[in-house]
Amino acid sequence: MNVGILGYGTVGSGVFDILRENKEVIAERIGEEISVKRVLDLRDFPGDPVEPVLTHDFKEIEADEDVQIVVETMGGLHPAYEFVKACLERGKSVCTSNKALVADFGPELIQLAKERHASFLFEARVGGGIPIIRPLQSSLSPDEILEISGILNGTTNYILTEMREKGADFDSVLKDAQALGYAEADPTADVEGHDACRKIAILTSLAYGKNVDFHDIYTEGITKITDRDIAYANQLGGKVKICGSSRKVGEQVSARVAPVLIYPGNPLYSVDGVFNAILVKGNMVGDVMFYGQGAGKLATASAVVSDVIEAGKNIGTGVPVQWTAEKLSLVPFGESKSRFLVRTAGAKSENESKVQAAFGDVEAVDAGFAEEYAFVTGEMTEAAYEEAARTVGTVINKIRIS
Amino acid sequence: MNVGILGYGTVGSGVFDILRENKEVIAERIGEEISVKRVLDLRDFPGDPVEPVLTHDFKEIEADEDVQIVVETMGGLHPAYEFVKACLERGKSVCTSNKALVADFGPELIQLAKERHASFLFEARVGGGIPIIRPLQSSLSPDEILEISGILNGTTNYILTEMREKGADFDSVLKDAQALGYAEADPTADVEGHDACRKIAILTSLAYGKNVDFHDIYTEGITKITDRDIAYANQLGGKVKICGSSRKVGEQVSARVAPVLIYPGNPLYSVDGVFNAILVKGNMVGDVMFYGQGAGKLATASAVVSDVIEAGKNIGTGVPVQWTAEKLSLVPFGESKSRFLVRTAGAKSENESKVQAAFGDVEAVDAGFAEEYAFVTGEMTEAAYEEAARTVGTVINKIRIS
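ok -> structure tokens follow
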């Protein structure tokens, strides 16, 4: 079986390494050898093991009928989209780790693959090294999915874990994370929740077989979380985690990405550091959780190679993926419900009566800051929360409770 | 697609229920309806929805060419083995939740299925509702498996969790667990570790493609664990869990089932109550953990139905399962290495010097019991531990450290 790789960056070279290093294990397991025939990159890599198979010309992969599976690890939308489309049109299967490509063109490329009896697979895109797409589509296929909830971004989980464990503030932890390579120079996509948002959109689309546009999902990052928020969370016996989640509500689905307070009974509670986890609730199987490294060169590359193997086992038929372009109906965010941990400026005596007037009965939380009044609300809609917070007028921050 | 079910007990009726209740979800997901054509049971179920399809005669399922998939949920070795074999010989696929059948006849039945281009699947057997076999065989297929470690039995995990949280002793917690239906009237298979042993034998066989005879795995239950052991574990900041584990050591594999002390850094640490989890370490993907309900009617039945769907998608070819009859070479147990938490009878002053003479440098642990001396050893083989313990002569109990 012959593979072409588009892009010899971090993940692409990881795929190349795994296919070389674990060649025997893989061949034993699937009964066939997998060879990398061509690797496309604009750069040269003198002395690197990739040299003999390196090409600068996409056509050499596209036109090569011996290459049945193409790995796309270039990143970016263009020319990745055009290259992937060209490969699928020729009946080649494509396995990708590309963030933007799957979120923007998933249903179209899945449909094209289906028409050509090929596969378009992207296990690495959602959970890094966590096997989630295949279990969601096969092991959990008897179940109606009631809820998906995940710690989907290693950078932000690392930052929140460090803030809690070291009592450090966001900015200094972010700087450390950048120095350690756990956060990018421009951390926006991670810390503002955009990466988690694309992931929960994909997971929700796969769970219900219809398309969720990630633009439609309410997304809140962690940049406003302070050491005080974490002190209140500690006081309540919980941890602040940024979660992407979606839940079936009648015939609709509600979805969001936001920092939430999680209690120890929730299996996500103990997922710390750069680890990710995805909790799925089925109507028959109950809670199932998948845990692993959400990123990292070899973990991500391993997920891509598992797709290559899956595609290889299904040459001529393709691996079916349930994700059509039909739009999934989302609950308007204002109607979705939570309990909230709310902090207001000013002492308890100044705030208590107006809080009660706006929010009804609340449970006060004292974390030792006399100049603030914090409380936990009952369950209420986002719209009702906004209205009540406006009425009170002194809200500093709020965190939803999982 | 037509299914026959052998045995309308807890799991069998769960499978029947799921196939009815989630009929639409399943049909939507796989593009075909699944109907239960016949259910075999010796009993009658007047008024039960199963009545119209109930039969007392296995031949009605065996000889029916419309029944392509048979679910075996009878339990026991005979006649389950004969029935399953007869079905496979006729080219029907079989999905089972049967404890003994898979452990005793796994490789033979897999081979028979392969010859007939049918499937023999048993997802429910290992992890109850936890998807593990398919991920192990597909998602982790690029990886060399370095280690598997699991909390594989809900009954014992519940007992140990309750002992820790309530400070209760083994016997009283076991009685409560029996009253709640979490433990069987005869709890031997659970509390002596036999159930976990069969599971780690299957997982290890699947990870390496060769057969591990469960009789060859050292197995220690939890009946000797006391509240004192748990007090020492607390003192060390850990929890006692009974783990089935196997690890690659050169070309061999070491395997065991035993109570172990687990620290918070280990993702298994927070798996409590009746939940199970399986941690797999791949040489590329790193740590991956699968978490869910290890038992329970619907969770187990959901796993069986996921096998039915998988078998249904692969009619005429069969789902390949890597597990041959060739024997996997195990490290002799005496050579496998651990650190140990050891309790000796008698005060520190009586024991310290002879302990040091036998075990070398150890780390003392004080949990407030003046009439005992407890300590943690360095890494040593089981044989060396036995020898040292014999020399000291006053050992009350030992727990390995994970």
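Residues 113 and 119 of chain A are 5 Å apart (CA to CA).
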